[in-house]
Amino acid sequence: MRRTVIRRRVTRMISAFLFQPPLPISPKHQYSLLPLTTTQRFLTASHSFRTLSTKSIPNMQDSASVSYLSQREAAEIDETLMGPLGFSVDQLMELAGLSVATSVAEVYKPSEYSRVLAICGPGNNGGDGLVAARHLHHFGYKPSICYPKRTSKSLYTGLVTQLESLSVPFVSVEDLPEDLSEDFDVIIDAIFGFSFHGAPRPPFDAIIRRLQTLQKRPVIVSVDIPSGWHVEEGDHEGGGIKPDMLVSLTAPKLCAKSFSGPHHFLGGRFVPPSVAEKYKLELPSYPGTSMCVRIGKPPKVDISAMRVNYVSPELLEDQVESDPVLQFRKWFDEAVAAGLRETNAMALSTTNKDRKPSSRMVLLKGFDENGFVWFTNYESKKGSDLSENPFAALLFYWEDMNRQVRIEGPVERISEEESENYYHSRPRGSQIGAIVSKQSSVVPGRHVLYDEYEELTKKYSDGSVIPKPKNWGGFRLKPNLFEFWQGQPSRLHDRLQYSLQEGNPAWIIRRLAP
Protein backbone atom coordinates (compact mmCIF):
# COMPACT_ATOMS: atom_id res chain seq x y z
CA MET A 1 0.00 0.00 0.00
CA ARG A 2 1.44 3.32 -1.01
CA ARG A 3 1.51 6.06 1.62
CA THR A 4 -0.85 8.96 1.36
CA VAL A 5 -1.25 12.69 1.93
CA ILE A 6 -3.90 15.92 1.95
CA ARG A 7 -5.75 18.62 -0.19
CA ARG A 8 -9.28 19.77 -1.23
CA ARG A 9 -11.04 21.34 1.73
CA VAL A 10 -7.89 21.17 3.86
CA THR A 11 -5.81 22.70 1.07
CA ARG A 12 -8.27 25.55 0.72
CA MET A 13 -7.92 26.25 4.45
CA ILE A 14 -4.12 26.10 4.26
CA SER A 15 -4.06 28.37 1.22
CA ALA A 16 -6.40 30.81 2.91
CA PHE A 17 -3.99 30.99 5.84
CA LEU A 18 -0.68 31.02 3.98
CA PHE A 19 -1.70 33.29 1.14
CA GLN A 20 -4.20 35.61 2.79
CA PRO A 21 -3.97 39.26 1.70
CA PRO A 22 -1.78 41.49 3.87
CA LEU A 23 -3.28 43.21 6.86
CA PRO A 24 -4.28 46.82 6.22
CA ILE A 25 -1.76 49.45 7.26
CA SER A 26 -2.67 53.03 7.94
CA PRO A 27 -0.80 55.33 5.57
CA LYS A 28 0.26 57.40 8.56
CA HIS A 29 0.74 55.64 11.90
CA GLN A 30 -0.18 57.59 15.02
CA TYR A 31 2.14 56.73 17.88
CA SER A 32 0.03 58.06 20.73
CA LEU A 33 -1.03 56.79 24.14
CA LEU A 34 -4.72 56.72 23.23
CA PRO A 35 -6.47 53.33 23.25
CA LEU A 36 -6.84 51.36 20.04
CA THR A 37 -5.20 53.70 17.60
CA THR A 38 -4.62 52.48 14.08
CA THR A 39 -1.10 51.46 15.03
CA GLN A 40 -2.17 49.60 18.15
CA ARG A 41 -4.85 47.70 16.25
CA PHE A 42 -2.28 46.73 13.65
CA LEU A 43 0.26 45.73 16.28
CA THR A 44 -2.38 43.52 17.88
CA ALA A 45 -3.21 41.96 14.51
CA SER A 46 0.42 41.40 13.61
CA HIS A 47 1.07 39.85 17.02
CA SER A 48 -1.79 37.40 16.48
CA PHE A 49 -0.64 36.57 12.96
CA ARG A 50 2.92 35.89 14.08
CA THR A 51 1.69 33.69 16.91
CA LEU A 52 -0.14 31.54 14.36
CA SER A 53 2.67 31.62 11.83
CA THR A 54 4.38 28.46 10.63
CA LYS A 55 7.61 30.24 11.52
CA SER A 56 6.86 29.75 15.21
CA ILE A 57 9.33 27.55 17.03
CA PRO A 58 8.01 23.96 17.35
CA ASN A 59 7.64 22.16 20.65
CA MET A 60 9.97 19.28 21.41
CA GLN A 61 8.72 15.80 22.32
CA ASP A 62 10.80 13.14 24.06
CA SER A 63 11.39 10.44 21.44
CA ALA A 64 10.86 7.73 24.08
CA SER A 65 7.23 8.80 24.57
CA VAL A 66 6.31 8.82 20.86
CA SER A 67 4.67 5.83 19.14
CA TYR A 68 6.42 4.06 16.25
CA LEU A 69 4.51 2.26 13.49
CA SER A 70 5.20 -1.03 11.78
CA GLN A 71 4.78 -1.23 8.01
CA ARG A 72 1.45 -3.03 8.43
CA GLU A 73 0.12 -0.42 10.85
CA ALA A 74 1.20 2.44 8.59
CA ALA A 75 -0.59 0.84 5.64
CA GLU A 76 -3.74 0.22 7.69
CA ILE A 77 -3.84 3.81 8.89
CA ASP A 78 -3.57 5.02 5.30
CA GLU A 79 -6.41 2.73 4.26
CA THR A 80 -8.55 4.08 7.11
CA LEU A 81 -7.78 7.69 6.27
CA MET A 82 -8.60 7.25 2.59
CA GLY A 83 -11.55 4.93 3.20
CA PRO A 84 -14.12 5.60 5.92
CA LEU A 85 -12.54 8.90 6.98
CA GLY A 86 -12.84 10.43 3.53
CA PHE A 87 -9.32 11.71 2.89
CA SER A 88 -7.90 11.67 -0.63
CA VAL A 89 -4.35 10.99 -1.74
CA ASP A 90 -3.83 14.54 -2.95
CA GLN A 91 -5.12 15.94 0.35
CA LEU A 92 -2.66 13.90 2.38
CA MET A 93 0.15 14.63 -0.06
CA GLU A 94 -0.39 18.37 0.21
CA LEU A 95 -0.16 18.33 4.00
CA ALA A 96 2.85 16.02 3.99
CA GLY A 97 4.76 18.22 1.55
CA LEU A 98 3.91 21.33 3.55
CA SER A 99 5.13 19.57 6.72
CA VAL A 100 8.44 18.75 5.06
CA ALA A 101 8.87 22.33 3.82
CA THR A 102 8.14 23.87 7.23
CA SER A 103 10.52 21.41 8.92
CA VAL A 104 13.29 22.44 6.51
CA ALA A 105 12.54 26.11 7.17
CA GLU A 106 12.79 25.60 10.95
CA VAL A 107 16.44 24.53 10.72
CA TYR A 108 17.92 25.53 7.37
CA LYS A 109 17.23 29.21 6.76
CA PRO A 110 17.09 30.43 3.13
CA SER A 111 19.75 33.05 3.84
CA GLU A 112 22.32 30.24 4.08
CA TYR A 113 20.60 27.17 2.59
CA SER A 114 18.68 28.56 -0.35
CA ARG A 115 19.69 26.07 -3.06
CA VAL A 116 17.52 22.96 -2.70
CA LEU A 117 17.51 19.81 -4.83
CA ALA A 118 14.45 17.58 -4.42
CA ILE A 119 15.12 14.06 -5.72
CA CYS A 120 11.71 12.48 -6.26
CA GLY A 121 10.79 8.86 -6.78
CA PRO A 122 7.84 7.58 -8.82
CA GLY A 123 5.41 7.07 -5.91
CA ASN A 124 3.72 9.05 -3.18
CA ASN A 125 7.01 9.82 -1.46
CA GLY A 126 8.12 11.54 -4.66
CA GLY A 127 4.83 13.44 -4.73
CA ASP A 128 5.54 14.69 -1.22
CA GLY A 129 8.88 15.97 -2.47
CA LEU A 130 7.25 17.83 -5.36
CA VAL A 131 4.79 19.52 -3.00
CA ALA A 132 7.59 20.39 -0.55
CA ALA A 133 9.60 22.01 -3.35
CA ARG A 134 6.64 24.19 -4.32
CA HIS A 135 6.18 25.43 -0.76
CA LEU A 136 9.91 26.01 -0.35
CA HIS A 137 9.81 28.18 -3.47
CA HIS A 138 7.14 30.32 -1.83
CA PHE A 139 9.21 30.40 1.38
CA GLY A 140 12.08 32.08 -0.50
CA TYR A 141 14.25 29.07 -1.41
CA LYS A 142 15.52 28.21 -4.90
CA PRO A 143 14.48 24.59 -5.49
CA SER A 144 15.41 22.33 -8.39
CA ILE A 145 13.82 18.96 -9.14
CA CYS A 146 15.36 15.65 -10.19
CA TYR A 147 12.42 13.42 -11.18
CA PRO A 148 13.78 10.51 -13.25
CA LYS A 149 10.75 8.19 -13.38
CA ARG A 150 7.73 10.36 -14.03
CA THR A 151 4.23 8.93 -13.97
CA SER A 152 1.36 9.88 -16.26
CA LYS A 153 -1.20 10.00 -13.45
CA SER A 154 -2.98 13.33 -13.31
CA LEU A 155 -2.09 13.96 -9.67
CA TYR A 156 1.62 13.90 -10.46
CA THR A 157 1.44 15.69 -13.78
CA GLY A 158 -0.50 18.44 -12.02
CA LEU A 159 2.26 18.82 -9.42
CA VAL A 160 4.83 19.07 -12.20
CA THR A 161 2.75 21.70 -14.00
CA GLN A 162 2.50 23.75 -10.80
CA LEU A 163 6.28 23.74 -10.43
CA GLU A 164 6.86 24.57 -14.09
CA SER A 165 4.50 27.54 -13.76
CA LEU A 166 6.83 28.86 -11.04
CA SER A 167 9.85 28.35 -13.33
CA VAL A 168 11.30 25.76 -10.95
CA PRO A 169 13.98 23.93 -13.00
CA PHE A 170 13.92 20.17 -13.58
CA VAL A 171 17.33 18.49 -13.82
CA SER A 172 17.97 15.08 -15.34
CA VAL A 173 20.19 12.54 -13.59
CA GLU A 174 22.76 12.96 -16.34
CA ASP A 175 22.88 16.74 -15.82
CA LEU A 176 23.42 16.59 -12.07
CA PRO A 177 26.81 18.12 -11.18
CA GLU A 178 29.59 15.75 -10.24
CA ASP A 179 30.06 17.61 -6.96
CA LEU A 180 26.59 18.25 -5.56
CA SER A 181 27.99 20.56 -2.87
CA GLU A 182 28.94 23.15 -5.49
CA ASP A 183 25.35 23.67 -6.62
CA PHE A 184 23.12 22.70 -3.67
CA ASP A 185 22.84 23.39 0.06
CA VAL A 186 19.98 20.98 0.83
CA ILE A 187 18.93 17.72 -0.79
CA ILE A 188 15.43 16.40 -0.15
CA ASP A 189 15.39 12.61 -0.30
CA ALA A 190 11.87 11.87 -1.54
CA ILE A 191 12.78 8.70 -3.42
CA PHE A 192 11.19 5.78 -1.56
CA GLY A 193 8.59 5.60 1.22
CA PHE A 194 7.49 2.97 3.70
CA SER A 195 5.80 0.76 1.09
CA PHE A 196 8.99 0.19 -0.94
CA HIS A 197 10.34 -3.38 -1.10
CA GLY A 198 13.50 -4.93 -2.49
CA ALA A 199 16.72 -3.39 -3.72
CA PRO A 200 16.72 0.02 -5.44
CA ARG A 201 16.90 -0.17 -9.23
CA PRO A 202 18.51 2.24 -11.71
CA PRO A 203 18.83 5.15 -11.66
CA PHE A 204 17.97 5.37 -7.97
CA ASP A 205 20.59 2.86 -6.84
CA ALA A 206 23.36 5.09 -8.24
CA ILE A 207 21.75 8.23 -6.79
CA ILE A 208 21.60 6.66 -3.32
CA ARG A 209 25.27 5.66 -3.56
CA ARG A 210 26.17 9.25 -4.44
CA LEU A 211 24.22 10.60 -1.49
CA GLN A 212 25.99 8.16 0.83
CA THR A 213 29.33 9.78 0.03
CA LEU A 214 28.32 13.34 0.90
CA GLN A 215 30.12 15.00 3.79
CA LYS A 216 28.79 18.08 5.62
CA ARG A 217 27.20 19.84 2.65
CA PRO A 218 24.72 19.59 1.16
CA VAL A 219 22.60 18.44 4.09
CA ILE A 220 20.11 15.65 3.41
CA VAL A 221 16.46 15.74 4.48
CA SER A 222 14.65 12.40 4.16
CA VAL A 223 10.89 12.27 3.77
CA ASP A 224 9.35 9.68 6.16
CA ILE A 225 11.91 6.94 5.40
CA PRO A 226 15.58 7.41 4.49
CA SER A 227 15.82 5.85 1.03
CA GLY A 228 17.51 2.46 1.12
CA TRP A 229 16.33 1.72 4.68
CA HIS A 230 14.00 -1.11 5.69
CA VAL A 231 10.84 0.43 7.11
CA GLU A 232 11.16 -1.53 10.36
CA GLU A 233 14.79 -2.65 10.62
CA GLY A 234 16.41 0.56 9.44
CA ASP A 235 19.69 0.60 7.54
CA HIS A 236 20.45 -3.00 8.52
CA GLU A 237 22.53 -3.69 5.40
CA GLY A 238 24.39 -0.39 5.46
CA GLY A 239 23.28 0.66 1.97
CA GLY A 240 20.97 3.50 2.88
CA ILE A 241 21.20 7.26 3.10
CA LYS A 242 22.40 8.86 6.33
CA PRO A 243 20.22 11.99 6.50
CA ASP A 244 20.82 15.07 8.63
CA MET A 245 17.06 15.51 9.07
CA LEU A 246 14.23 12.99 9.07
CA VAL A 247 10.65 14.22 8.68
CA SER A 248 8.37 11.40 9.83
CA LEU A 249 4.80 11.59 8.57
CA THR A 250 1.61 10.60 10.44
CA ALA A 251 3.78 8.87 13.07
CA PRO A 252 7.43 7.73 13.04
CA LYS A 253 8.04 4.30 11.54
CA LEU A 254 10.03 1.69 13.48
CA CYS A 255 13.16 2.41 11.47
CA ALA A 256 13.22 5.95 12.90
CA LYS A 257 14.48 4.49 16.18
CA SER A 258 17.79 3.98 14.35
CA PHE A 259 17.96 7.56 13.12
CA SER A 260 21.00 9.26 14.66
CA GLY A 261 20.97 12.57 12.80
CA PRO A 262 20.57 15.90 14.60
CA HIS A 263 17.05 16.82 13.48
CA HIS A 264 13.97 14.58 13.72
CA PHE A 265 10.60 16.20 13.03
CA LEU A 266 7.07 14.86 12.87
CA GLY A 267 4.70 16.26 10.25
CA GLY A 268 1.23 15.55 8.93
CA ARG A 269 -1.15 17.18 11.32
CA PHE A 270 -4.24 15.25 10.31
CA VAL A 271 -4.55 12.11 12.47
CA PRO A 272 -8.13 11.94 13.84
CA PRO A 273 -8.67 10.92 17.49
CA SER A 274 -10.38 7.68 16.42
CA VAL A 275 -7.21 6.54 14.61
CA ALA A 276 -4.97 7.60 17.49
CA GLU A 277 -7.13 5.65 19.94
CA LYS A 278 -7.36 2.52 17.78
CA TYR A 279 -3.59 2.26 17.34
CA LYS A 280 -2.79 3.68 20.81
CA LEU A 281 -0.71 6.43 19.21
CA GLU A 282 1.25 8.73 21.47
CA LEU A 283 1.81 11.82 19.33
CA PRO A 284 3.10 15.26 20.34
CA SER A 285 0.98 18.38 20.34
CA TYR A 286 1.63 20.80 17.51
CA PRO A 287 2.15 24.40 18.62
CA GLY A 288 -0.18 27.06 17.22
CA THR A 289 -0.77 26.27 13.56
CA SER A 290 2.66 24.79 12.99
CA MET A 291 2.78 21.84 10.61
CA CYS A 292 5.79 20.23 12.29
CA VAL A 293 7.08 19.39 15.75
CA ARG A 294 10.57 18.33 16.80
CA ILE A 295 11.00 14.86 18.28
CA GLY A 296 13.77 14.23 20.80
CA LYS A 297 16.39 16.55 22.18
CA PRO A 298 17.79 19.40 20.10
CA PRO A 299 21.30 18.75 18.75
CA LYS A 300 24.36 19.78 20.71
CA VAL A 301 25.87 22.87 19.19
CA ASP A 302 29.24 24.56 19.26
CA ILE A 303 28.29 27.99 20.55
CA SER A 304 31.54 29.49 19.31
CA ALA A 305 30.62 28.47 15.75
CA MET A 306 27.11 29.95 15.82
CA ARG A 307 26.90 32.95 13.52
CA VAL A 308 24.78 34.44 10.75
CA ASN A 309 26.17 36.06 7.63
CA TYR A 310 23.82 39.01 7.24
CA VAL A 311 22.67 40.20 3.83
CA SER A 312 20.98 43.62 3.92
CA PRO A 313 20.63 46.85 1.96
CA GLU A 314 23.37 49.35 2.76
CA LEU A 315 22.66 52.04 5.35
CA LEU A 316 24.20 55.21 3.92
CA GLU A 317 24.53 58.67 5.41
CA ASP A 318 22.95 60.42 2.43
CA GLN A 319 19.89 58.15 2.56
CA VAL A 320 18.85 58.54 6.21
CA GLU A 321 16.72 61.23 7.80
CA SER A 322 18.50 64.17 9.42
CA ASP A 323 16.21 63.79 12.45
CA PRO A 324 16.75 60.42 14.24
CA VAL A 325 13.15 60.34 15.50
CA LEU A 326 11.97 60.40 11.88
CA GLN A 327 14.51 57.71 10.98
CA PHE A 328 13.25 55.58 13.89
CA ARG A 329 9.67 56.13 12.75
CA LYS A 330 10.63 54.96 9.25
CA TRP A 331 12.28 51.77 10.52
CA PHE A 332 9.46 51.14 13.00
CA ASP A 333 6.88 51.47 10.20
CA GLU A 334 8.82 49.01 8.07
CA ALA A 335 9.05 46.50 10.94
CA VAL A 336 5.30 46.78 11.55
CA ALA A 337 4.57 46.36 7.83
CA ALA A 338 6.76 43.23 7.79
CA GLY A 339 4.51 41.68 10.43
CA LEU A 340 7.22 41.30 13.06
CA ARG A 341 6.03 40.19 16.45
CA GLU A 342 6.00 42.84 19.19
CA THR A 343 7.80 45.47 17.17
CA ASN A 344 7.49 47.75 20.19
CA ALA A 345 9.40 45.39 22.52
CA MET A 346 12.61 46.97 23.80
CA ALA A 347 15.37 46.16 26.27
CA LEU A 348 15.50 48.82 28.99
CA SER A 349 18.83 49.13 30.82
CA THR A 350 19.18 51.09 34.05
CA THR A 351 21.76 51.53 36.82
CA ASN A 352 21.29 52.30 40.50
CA LYS A 353 23.23 54.75 42.66
CA ASP A 354 25.98 52.13 43.05
CA ARG A 355 26.32 51.94 39.25
CA LYS A 356 25.10 48.33 39.16
CA PRO A 357 23.31 47.75 35.82
CA SER A 358 20.17 45.73 35.14
CA SER A 359 18.16 45.09 31.98
CA ARG A 360 14.70 43.80 31.13
CA MET A 361 12.24 43.77 28.23
CA VAL A 362 9.41 46.31 28.29
CA LEU A 363 6.93 47.60 25.71
CA LEU A 364 7.17 51.03 24.13
CA LYS A 365 3.79 52.75 24.40
CA GLY A 366 4.42 55.99 22.56
CA PHE A 367 7.11 58.13 20.96
CA ASP A 368 7.47 61.54 19.35
CA GLU A 369 9.93 64.43 19.32
CA ASN A 370 9.55 64.70 23.12
CA GLY A 371 10.77 61.20 23.84
CA PHE A 372 9.98 57.49 24.25
CA VAL A 373 7.37 56.38 26.80
CA TRP A 374 6.76 53.16 28.74
CA PHE A 375 4.78 52.30 31.88
CA THR A 376 5.61 50.40 35.04
CA ASN A 377 5.33 50.22 38.80
CA TYR A 378 7.42 53.07 40.22
CA GLU A 379 8.49 50.81 43.11
CA SER A 380 9.82 48.08 40.79
CA LYS A 381 13.56 47.48 40.30
CA LYS A 382 13.66 49.69 37.22
CA GLY A 383 11.58 52.35 38.95
CA SER A 384 13.93 52.29 41.93
CA ASP A 385 16.99 52.51 39.66
CA LEU A 386 15.57 55.49 37.78
CA SER A 387 14.75 57.33 40.99
CA GLU A 388 18.41 56.98 42.02
CA ASN A 389 19.97 57.51 38.60
CA PRO A 390 17.55 59.04 36.02
CA PHE A 391 19.37 57.88 32.90
CA ALA A 392 18.67 54.82 30.75
CA ALA A 393 19.35 53.05 27.47
CA LEU A 394 16.80 51.42 25.14
CA LEU A 395 17.51 48.70 22.59
CA PHE A 396 15.16 47.60 19.81
CA TYR A 397 16.14 44.42 17.91
CA TRP A 398 14.28 43.42 14.75
CA GLU A 399 15.92 40.12 13.89
CA ASP A 400 14.12 39.39 10.62
CA MET A 401 15.27 42.72 9.21
CA ASN A 402 18.87 42.51 10.53
CA ARG A 403 18.32 45.79 12.39
CA GLN A 404 18.74 47.21 15.85
CA VAL A 405 18.41 50.69 17.33
CA ARG A 406 20.07 51.96 20.52
CA ILE A 407 18.76 55.07 22.28
CA GLU A 408 20.24 56.78 25.34
CA GLY A 409 19.21 59.75 27.43
CA PRO A 410 17.82 61.14 30.67
CA VAL A 411 14.51 59.85 32.02
CA GLU A 412 11.64 61.57 33.81
CA ARG A 413 8.17 60.62 34.96
CA ILE A 414 5.32 61.66 32.70
CA SER A 415 2.41 63.68 34.08
CA GLU A 416 -0.17 62.04 36.32
CA GLU A 417 -2.85 62.94 33.77
CA GLU A 418 -1.03 61.05 30.99
CA SER A 419 -0.61 58.02 33.24
CA GLU A 420 -4.31 58.11 34.22
CA ASN A 421 -5.41 58.33 30.59
CA TYR A 422 -3.28 55.38 29.53
CA TYR A 423 -4.13 53.28 32.58
CA HIS A 424 -7.86 53.52 31.91
CA SER A 425 -7.38 52.73 28.22
CA ARG A 426 -6.00 49.29 29.16
CA PRO A 427 -8.18 46.15 29.39
CA ARG A 428 -9.82 45.90 32.81
CA GLY A 429 -7.90 42.71 33.52
CA SER A 430 -4.62 44.54 32.96
CA GLN A 431 -5.76 47.36 35.26
CA ILE A 432 -6.47 44.85 38.03
CA GLY A 433 -3.16 43.13 37.33
CA ALA A 434 -1.33 46.42 37.95
CA ILE A 435 -2.94 46.62 41.40
CA VAL A 436 -2.25 42.98 42.26
CA SER A 437 1.42 43.00 41.23
CA LYS A 438 3.72 44.67 43.75
CA GLN A 439 6.35 44.42 41.04
CA SER A 440 9.77 43.02 41.99
CA SER A 441 8.63 42.17 45.54
CA VAL A 442 8.84 38.58 46.83
CA VAL A 443 5.56 36.59 46.87
CA PRO A 444 5.03 33.23 48.65
CA GLY A 445 3.41 31.66 45.58
CA ARG A 446 1.45 32.25 42.41
CA HIS A 447 -1.79 31.44 44.21
CA VAL A 448 -1.45 34.69 46.19
CA LEU A 449 -1.62 36.69 42.98
CA TYR A 450 -4.55 34.65 41.64
CA ASP A 451 -6.52 34.99 44.87
CA GLU A 452 -6.16 38.76 44.99
CA TYR A 453 -6.89 39.06 41.27
CA GLU A 454 -10.09 37.04 41.68
CA GLU A 455 -11.15 39.13 44.68
CA LEU A 456 -10.66 42.41 42.81
CA THR A 457 -12.37 41.06 39.70
CA LYS A 458 -15.47 40.39 41.77
CA LYS A 459 -15.21 43.78 43.45
CA TYR A 460 -15.23 45.64 40.14
CA SER A 461 -17.59 43.29 38.29
CA ASP A 462 -20.25 46.03 38.28
CA GLY A 463 -18.21 47.99 35.75
CA SER A 464 -17.20 50.71 38.17
CA VAL A 465 -13.96 52.65 37.60
CA ILE A 466 -10.84 50.80 38.70
CA PRO A 467 -8.54 53.31 40.42
CA LYS A 468 -4.96 53.60 39.18
CA PRO A 469 -2.41 52.69 41.85
CA LYS A 470 -0.47 55.75 43.04
CA ASN A 471 2.81 53.92 42.46
CA TRP A 472 2.02 53.11 38.82
CA GLY A 473 2.71 55.36 35.83
CA GLY A 474 4.88 56.23 32.88
CA PHE A 475 8.46 57.24 32.20
CA ARG A 476 9.75 59.24 29.25
CA LEU A 477 13.30 59.00 27.92
CA LYS A 478 14.50 62.18 26.19
CA PRO A 479 17.12 60.96 23.68
CA ASN A 480 20.54 62.54 23.36
CA LEU A 481 22.02 59.64 21.36
CA PHE A 482 20.73 57.20 18.72
CA GLU A 483 22.57 54.42 16.94
CA PHE A 484 21.07 52.63 13.92
CA TRP A 485 22.65 49.25 13.15
CA GLN A 486 22.18 47.26 9.93
CA GLY A 487 23.76 43.79 9.68
CA GLN A 488 26.08 43.26 6.69
CA PRO A 489 28.19 40.42 5.26
CA SER A 490 31.56 39.54 6.82
CA ARG A 491 30.66 41.44 10.01
CA LEU A 492 31.16 44.78 8.21
CA HIS A 493 27.94 46.12 9.66
CA ASP A 494 26.57 49.61 9.14
CA ARG A 495 26.47 51.75 12.31
CA LEU A 496 25.21 55.32 12.10
CA GLN A 497 25.26 57.35 15.31
CA TYR A 498 23.21 60.50 15.94
CA SER A 499 24.44 62.67 18.81
CA LEU A 500 23.86 66.13 20.23
CA GLN A 501 26.53 68.60 21.28
CA GLU A 502 25.92 71.01 24.12
CA GLY A 503 24.35 74.25 22.92
CA ASN A 504 23.62 72.90 19.43
CA PRO A 505 20.11 71.54 18.67
CA ALA A 506 21.22 69.96 15.38
CA TRP A 507 21.94 66.23 15.32
CA ILE A 508 25.40 65.15 14.18
CA ILE A 509 25.60 61.91 12.17
CA ARG A 510 28.76 59.80 12.37
CA ARG A 511 29.62 56.37 10.99
CA LEU A 512 31.10 53.99 13.57
CA ALA A 513 33.37 51.04 12.88
CA PRO A 514 31.47 47.74 13.16
TrEMBL record:
What does the note accompanying the cofactor annotation read?
Binds 1 potassium ion per subunit.
- Residues reported in the UniProt entry to bind (6S)-NADPHX: N124, N125, G126, G127, D128, G193, F194, S195, F196, H197, G198, A199, D224
Does RNA-binding count among this protein's keywords? no
Keyword entries, A-Z:
Flavoprotein, FMN, Isomerase, Metal-binding, NAD, Nucleotide-binding, Oxidoreductase, Potassium, Pyridoxine biosynthesis
Pathway listed: Cofactor metabolism; pyridoxal 5'-phosphate salvage; pyridoxal 5'-phosphate from pyridoxamine 5'-phosphate: step 1/1; Cofactor metabolism; pyridoxal 5'-phosphate salvage; pyridoxal 5'-phosphate from pyridoxine 5'-phosphate: step 1/1
Q: Keyword Isomerase on this protein?
A: yes
Q: Which Pfam families match?
A: PNP_phzG_C, PNPOx_N, YjeF_N
For this protein, the record's SUPFAM superfamilies field holds: FMN-binding split barrel, YjeF N-terminal domain-like
Q: Which family does it belong to?
A: Belongs to the NnrE/AIBP family.
PANTHER family linked to this entry: PYRIDOXINE-5'-PHOSPHATE OXIDASE, PYRIDOXINE-5-PHOSPHATE OXIDASE
* Record's subunit section: Homodimer.
Function, in words: Catalyzes the epimerization of the S- and R-forms of NAD(P)HX, a damaged form of NAD(P)H that is a result of enzymatic or heat-dependent hydration. This is a prerequisite for the S-specific NAD(P)H-hydrate dehydratase to allow the repair of both epimers of NAD(P)HX.
Its protein name is: NAD(P)H-hydrate epimerase
Source species of the chain: Brassica oleracea var. oleracea
Query: What does UniProt list as this organism's lineage?
Result: Eukaryota, Viridiplantae, Streptophyta, Embryophyta, Tracheophyta
